[in-house]
Amino acid sequence: MIFPAITETLVLPLDGDEVERRIGKGIEDKEFNGAVYTRSFSLSAHLIRPPQFQPIVRGRIETSSRGSMVFLRYELLPATKLLLIFVSVLALIVAIVLAISEARVYYSFIAVAMAVVFRFVALTNIRLHRDPVRENLLRILS
Q1: Same structural domain for residues 24 and 87?
Q2: Are residues 24 and 39 in the same domain?
Q3: Distant-in-sequence contacts of 21-24, Cβ < 8 A, 24+ apart
Q4: Model pLDDT for residues 93-112, shown as the tens digit of each residue
Q5: Which residue has the higher pLDDT, 97 or 20?
Q6: Do residues 47 and 133 touch, judged by C-beta distance below 8 A?
Q7: Is residue 125 part of a domain?
Q8: What global pTM score does this model have?
Q9: Residue 124 lies in a domain
Q10: Domain around 105
Q11: What pLDDT score was predicted for residue 57?
């Protein structure tokens, strides 16, 4: 797992077509931003100014004999993924340069620790900001 993400599975008594219809209605009613595809969807909270670490929800719908299962994956927006890559690569380059220049060893550890902390902050913010989308999704699917 290169980027932080959270997964969740919902078991619903609704068939797959009904799940798609309800999610589509939620997008039309401006409860979400997103799109519904055949047996999958992509959603984010409908906010005027979303926070940098606002997660996007990617879902896959599988129909079963008793309803359907919805597999959710909360992950970073593409721009935030690029930011995470940039900061991580920059920190690693600084760590390598400091190690080669024989600077104090703990400077290299600090640079690597900064990349780890940034990743931890990203995962923590996904957990904090997933609630608006999750609550709306659970409400329209119940």
Answers
A1: no
A2: yes
A3: 22/140, 22/141, 23/59, 23/137, 23/140, 23/141
A4: 888 888 888 777 787 788 88
A5: 20
A6: no
A7: no
A8: 0.80
A9: no
A10: 80-119
A11: 92
